[in-house]
Description:
The complex is a heterodimer.
Chain A: H1 3-31, H2 46-55, H3 62-74, E1 80-81, E2 86-87, H4 88-123, H5 128-142, H6 145-159, H7 170-175, H8 183-190, H9 193-230, H10 233-240, H11 245-282, H12 288-298, H13 301-329
Chain B: E1 18-31, E2 34-47, E3 51-55, H1 62-68, E4 78-87, E5 90-92, E6 109-111, E7 133-134, H2 140-146, E8 151-154, H3 158-161, H4 168-179, H5 181-187, H6 197-206, H7 212-220, H8 222-245, H9 251-256, H10 264-276, E9 282-286, H11 294-311, E10 314-319, H12 322-328, E11 331-336, E12 339-345, H13 346-351, H14 356-364, E13 413-416, E14 419-421, H15 431-436
Parallel strand pairs in B: 3-10, 3-11, 8-9, 9-10
Antiparallel strand pairs in B: 1-2, 1-4, 4-7, 5-6, 11-12, 12-14, 13-14
Helix pairs in contact in B: 4-8, 6-7, 6-8, 7-8, 8-10, 10-11
Subunit structure (chain B): The complex is composed of two ATP-binding proteins (NikD and NikE), two transmembrane proteins (NikB and NikC) and a solute-binding protein (NikA).
Organism (chain B): Flavimaricola marinus
Domain ABC transporter (chain B): 22-362
Amino acid sequence: MQLRDYIIRRLIVLPILLLGVSIIVFSLTRIAGSPVGVYLSHEMSAAEVLQIEQRFNLDKPLPVQYFYWLKGVFQGDFGWSGVASAPVADVFPAKFAATMELSITSAIVAVALGLWLGTYAGVRRNKMPDHITRIVAVSAASLPLFWFGILLLIVFWANLGWFPVGRSTNDIWESIAHPTGFYIIDSILAGSLTALLDALWHLVLPSITLGFGGVAIIARMMRSSLIEELQQDYVDAARAKGLPERLVLKRHAKRNALVPTVTVIGLTIAFLMQGAIAAEIIFRWPGLGRWMADAVVRGDQATIMTYVLFTSVLFLLANLVVDIIYAKLDPRVRLGD
Amino acid sequence: MSMEMSDTKSARPVTPVTIASVRGLKVHFQSKAGRVHAVDGVDFDVRDGETLGLVGETGCGKSVTGRAFLRLLPVPPGILAGGSVMFRPQTTCPDCQGDGCERCDDSGRRPAPCPKCRGQGCTTCDQTGIESLDLLTISDARMRDIRGDRIAMIFQDPSKALNPTLTIGEQLGEVFLQHRHADLLAAAGIAEDQPGWQASALRRLASQQDRGTDRLLVKLSGAMRRKHRAIRQALDERIAAALSETQIPNPQRVMQSFPHELSGGMRQRVMIAQALACDPDLIIADEPTTALDVTVQARILDLVRQLQTSRGSSVIYISHDLSVVRHICDRVAVMYAGRVVEIGDVEQLFTNPRHPYTQGLLAAVPTTRTPRGQLAAIPGSVPELIDPGPSCRFADRCAKAHGPCASHDPALQPVSAGHDVACFLEHPITTASRARA
């Protein structure tokens, strides 16, 4: 099947999947109780509560409520966020940009460092660099993210004071315009080096925390698949052609070792979305994860629904991208059969 | 299967010029149990233009010996424990430019002159004037120049020896890019010493030493793109020519294919095309037909034989299939437990085997008259090769073993012209040599 056809087919299926996801999550959140709580205050009478329920259609049967929610989504109305005391649609873009900025930086850290470390160790199998990488990777994979984050926080923020927490220094943030909501991009657009450095400086600790687990998984996978590929006959055949070791590694072994590693990278992206919640709480990052954590605790159902809907889109798109890379790397992969 | 093959043997008279000689080659492997003497003192010569069969059972060291020519051994755990593999590379005959003349015996090829004395004869080349390289000690860079260019290898299983994620064209192209980039650049009209950053970038691209920026330059500059396209075209022509030489139909389409889209026979033809791309002097064929269907085997063998004869290349044919070896080889070396036990012309060796192991091997080949359930076998099994003592390696399994076999090591000695055997039955041990041992 043609790659283009496959992408189109997957994109057609995407809304159907999202509809399914939204039905499941809607039912699950409603089990926790009525979302009316976010609209109430202690002074309200029973009649007033009933009035609010009627106004937001919360007195109707569940399928009807779902229908109203869906209608709202199509109109760009994602409901009222009790946590943010504002409509979800107003708060969402800024939070979303903050989380994406953190996740993308972490993903770059995880993929770049993971592939490099894995290759470095795989080529030097059972030598000292390999052992050191193994120790680092195994400990990274087994450290709980929240613990590692707090550790970094204590050492580099509380004790040494080298790195800040939060997303920005307030004065600098306010000195530039924010057309995209991505601090790095905004600072480049504004041509402000101070703002760019401020953005990067704030990103260091949270993105290391978030990317560290991914580094471990990717490095281990890359190492083992590279070792496996290096033992294949075609690697010797490439050497027998007279190719320098650099090309044997780059064009033959490493490229093929990437095939299974890409799958792991796809899973890491899901891991980053989970991890973002903890990392954002620890480093006071004003993103979706922290908002979501508050929303869960306080029964802010509109926020939960929106969060789940968007992470589902991201997850499905990430999977699609992985499938495409997979097909590009290995011609034997036949998509959609 | 020998019935199906056309007789292409000895199409060219064997000239007694040696192109490679192995002396005392020892390859050991370090294992937890001790040092495995996989190849333990192997001697043989490869004559120019001949096919030398290297036969023996699994684990006798024949593949390791073959790989030692290209230094394709895993080190560690492999250890090159001693000996030498001398190789005399050939060049186009300077007198006739490859057309064939008296001085090169109509082959169009002559041994490369010693680089130190330019063929005059000096101490380096032992007054022969011929370049001679020890493949075990030359630099890695020199080894890479020889791999794929002067010595090529055909692997056992073409479905494993071809990279599954690169097209046939990309894989075959690598050989030309690595060893023939000067030709490609010349075809595109770029002189070897042409100055300028554009020419340098194209030279790097053609010799696979490109930096990330070179590809970008080609994309951006129209003039460079045209030159680069000319290089690619010259390369594609050479790839297609190499493929059609191995009788691959529709080479243009095969070039675009991936290995998994071809049949096993086709894949092996691609491997052969790849090995023969630069007209090597020596081809190491490591059981090239074992992974193929019997019906395809004969055609592949004929193809190898035919291409080898037309180029005058020598072949080391590693196999455990005696009928194939008898059919296509000029000489045979029988290996057992890391040693050559018998070597000689194929007819002499097959009609008059002198070593008990060779006799046993030949007797074990079933014929149509062998009754069902009565396959002959050599009793016992191959000895452990961990730190072996001085004795004949075959003594434990030999029906004719006697006194010195268990305590002395037999050496290869001639029994007739061009036929050597390492056995005390042929060369009884003298008191003098016993005292020396």
